[in-house]
UniProtKB/TrEMBL annotation:
<dbReference type="GO" id="GO:0051536">
    <property type="term" value="F:iron-sulfur cluster binding"/>
</dbReference>
<protein>
    <submittedName>
        <fullName>Nitrogen fixation NifU-like protein</fullName>
    </submittedName>
</protein>
<dbReference type="GO" id="GO:0016226">
    <property type="term" value="P:iron-sulfur cluster assembly"/>
</dbReference>
<dbReference type="InterPro" id="IPR002871">
    <property type="entry name" value="NIF_FeS_clus_asmbl_NifU_N"/>
</dbReference>
<dbReference type="GO" id="GO:0005506">
    <property type="term" value="F:iron ion binding"/>
</dbReference>
<feature type="domain" description="NIF system FeS cluster assembly NifU N-terminal">
    <location>
        <begin position="4"/>
        <end position="124"/>
    </location>
</feature>
<dbReference type="Pfam" id="PF01592">
    <property type="entry name" value="NifU_N"/>
</dbReference>
């Protein structure tokens, strides 16, 4: 599997969900100190369903494409299902290439399976997913 598959390139060039929007329930800002990638991600949750994810991302094509794919996968999904997808993405990316991912669970995120073979790039692909997890924790009732 090629690191820069066509899907990753397309999402990087034409990202989905990019641009910070309101209203939002929580926001998280994450930085990858290794390479300088940054993302500010906003999430809106209504009735335990993610109704919007918007973001401003600066970084490599893998980081930006991952945020775009994240947007497509989670908007409209129950928070519980989003957590399961996030866990599956993290497992695939940290498997060092042993887990190629389940397309039924991961959708277009399976395109990032090849990234797992490049440890320096794993953090790039996980940055938006980590910001999402953080933002979702901030939306939880106290």
């Amino acid at each position: 599997m090629d690191l820069y598959q066509q899907l990753i390139i397309e999402h990087s060039k034409r990202p989905h969900g990019e641009g910070l929007r309101a209203p939002f329930g929580a926001q998280a800002h994450h930085v990858n100190p290794t390479c300088g990638d940054e993302i500010t991600l906003r999430v809106q949750v209504e009735d335990e369903v993610v109704t919007d994810v918007s973001y401003d991302a600066v970084g490599c094509s893998i980081s930006r494409a991952s945020a775009s794919v994240l947007h497509d996968l989670v908007v409209g999904q129950p928070v519980v299902a989003v957590g399961e997808v996030r866990d599956a993405v993290q497992h695939m990316l940290t498997s060092r290439g042993e887990d190629t991912g389940d397309e039924e669970v991961l959708g277009d995120a399976v395109a990032f399976a090849g990234v797992a073979k490049y440890p320096a790039r794993v953090k790039c692909a996980l940055l938006s997913w980590s910001a999402l997890a953080d933002a979702l924790l901030r939306t939880a009732p106290a």
